[in-house]
């Protein structure tokens, strides 16, 4: 579950900022709760799962954990963001998919490695009005889809009050041919086995998405964080039989308790 840079900053600045940590120790926040998410790429069935986030800052670097995704901001004290990123993508198997999609080959969970770059600017003393852009590029290294996925995101800090913050964001993602064919293509052999029409797909845009992140601090330590987002498959991905037999719209939501330290 993505969370924009503006929301990450808000969790560190809502209410009064804590005294700087000069000991060289780790500081930041963790959030734990529950989430609802699609079972696989294109699914119209949803499943419950953990909602786990964390920002852990140490010596000017920040580890950002977002469920099955993680990245390291090597310039945490700078408007520029840059560093490595990893992700685990959900599997798709015949137990999750309805007939006749269940006749398609299983797609195992993918482990993706890459990096990201971003920049944030603007905003008042509390951070309201801050705008952030970032681009993440990930390559499968687990022989699941063998492709590359790139996601561009923009976020905006709408509200910064003493205890409450609200951010909005939007994303667009791109997949190479190997990625798109794995999740959205149907080969002639697969068509013969499943009865689904063959569908050849190449590289291109996969989806567009938007979401909002809301947070409330009870005190300097404890708070509540909520996130809801929706994406829609576009271009050739939306015309895939996999999507036609499932859903063009994917919704994710989650809520968790936050702790700052």
Polypeptide structure, described:
This protein is mainly beta and 261 residues long. It has a single domain (5-260), classed as Beta Barrel (Porin), CATH 2.40.160. The chain contains 5 helices and 12 strands. The protein has a 12-stranded antiparallel barrel with strand order 1-2-3-4-5-6-7-8-9-10-11-12. It is found in: Cell outer membrane.
Main features:
single chain; 261 residues; mainly beta; Porin; 12-stranded antiparallel barrel; 5 helices; 12 strands; elongated; cell outer membrane; MipA
Q: What's the shape?
A: elongated
User: Could you please say which CATH topology applies here?
Assistant: Porin
CATH class designation: Mainly Beta
β-strand amount: over 45%
SSE ordering: HEEEEEEEEEHHEEHHE
Structure classification: mainly beta
Q: How many beta-strand elements? A: 12
> What is the helix tally?
5
Overall mean pLDDT score?
89
CATH architecture: Beta Barrel
- Give the total of domains: 1
Uncertain stretches:
12-20
Sheet having the most strands: 12 strands, antiparallel, barrel
Distance between the termini: 22 Å
Proportion of residues in helical segments: 10-25%
Q: How big is the Rg? A: 20 Å
């Amino acid at each position: 579950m993505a969370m924009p840079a503006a929301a990450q900053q808000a969790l560190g600045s809502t209410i009064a900022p804590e005294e700087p940590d000069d000991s060289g120790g780790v500081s930041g926040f963790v959030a734990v709760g529950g989430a609802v998410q699609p079972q696989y790429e294109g699914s119209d069935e949803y499943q419950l799962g953990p909602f786990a986030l964390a920002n852990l800052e140490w010596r000017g670097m920040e580890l950002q954990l977002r469920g099955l995704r993680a990245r390291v901001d090597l310039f945490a004290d700078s408007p520029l963001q840059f560093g490595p990123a990893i992700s685990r993508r959900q599997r798709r198997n015949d137990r999750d998919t309805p007939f006749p999609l269940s006749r398609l080959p299983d797609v195992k969970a993918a482990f993706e490695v890459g990096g990201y770059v971003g920049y944030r600017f603007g905003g008042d003393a509390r951070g309201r009005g801050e705008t952030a852009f970032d681009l993440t590029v990930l390559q499968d290294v687990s022989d699941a889809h063998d492709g590359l996925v790139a996601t561009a995101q923009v976020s905006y800090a709408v509200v910064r009050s003493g205890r409450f913050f609200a951010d909005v964001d939007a994303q667009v993602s791109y997949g190479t041919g190997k990625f798109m064919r794995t999740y959205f293509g149907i080969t002639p052999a697969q068509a013969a086995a499943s009865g689904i029409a063959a569908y050849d797909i190449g590289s291109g845009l996969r989806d567009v998405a938007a979401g909002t992140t809301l947070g409330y601090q009870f005190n300097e330590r404890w708070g509540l964080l909520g996130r809801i987002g929706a994406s829609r498959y576009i271009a050739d991905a939306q015309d895939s039989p996999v999507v036609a037999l499932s859903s063009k719209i994917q919704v994710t939501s989650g809520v968790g308790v936050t702790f700052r330290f």
